[in-house]
Amino acid sequence: MAEQSDVLDEALDLLCDTGPEFGPGLSNHGPMAAEALYTLGRAEEVVPWTEGYKRNLQDAPKPGNPIPPDGWREALGNVKRVADWAVFFERELDQAPWQQIVNTWTAEFAPGMVSAATHGIIRTAHAARNLGRNETKERLRELAQGLAYWAARYMTVPGLPDRGGSRLPSAAIEDVPVQSVEDQHQLGLITHRLLRLDEESFGGVINMVDTSDRDAFLSDMTETFARAYLANVNDANSIGLIHCVTGPSAVRLLLPYLTPDVADQACAHAWQAGAAIYAAFGQRPAPESIATVSNVREDIIDQAVFTQDEHAIKFTEACLREYDLHGSNVFLAAAVDASQRLRS
What we know:
Helix content: 55-70%
Mean pLDDT: 95
Radius of gyration: 19 Å
Number of strands: 2
Order of helices and strands: HEEHHHHHHHHHHHHHHHH
Structural class: mainly alpha
């Protein structure tokens, strides 16, 4: 897709003075949704949508306490240092190619795939795909912001990889221990619900799956979580279940820049992250049947754009990306459902 008057750089400039969160800890989706709109072929919508979305946002915090190259772990997970983290990664990007930075820090942060309800990995992945089109100062700055958010909101869920599993996610999801309905009905952000996962019940989940065939694994995983979305979705849990797909699917966008060992690590933790969100919002791994979707691609995109909702736009782009690779109708059904639920 050819560049169309650098609308993505214009959108990133519009957002450059906004913070990574607003309201009660909600993630700023502006850069991610703008890039998704462009990927969906709606370049003309990028700047108007961004201008409207920006009205919801808060000003960017100011840096004040530089993070040293040899002391960054002390600042990991400290959201008050997010501006310091942005300066840290701008410096990193001055010293090495951005592709190398993506690989290096994905290796460090992969265990925190759920950070900011997976928005750390998602924002980083959208920024990397955007840089793959054209390397500009605006896109490098956005990559620094994505990595900074991943670092500042860094958190993990129980379980460390110690052996390879033998199953694909479509089989393994049957054994993911879900939270009780009563626990799931408690209010709170996605990250608050993830804090309720415990080592005894959830710790082994990461070691259930075989990631050796990364393409097959990612396709099976995203389809599995799209099925879980359709099986469980209601108006109260749709946003949570959307991230079962958009978070893990973001790893696919980073694969071109990851060494094999880092890619394997990222895939394992992507499964862990998606399973964690499913455990917090789902009860049934798959619906009894999938409705046939007659909508053509452009109609599905039109529905997402009509909502003006950042989650509908990002989810539709992720679902169509996975559909284009392997053609499962599940992705179309999930995208259509989300747009209908999130319509303004």
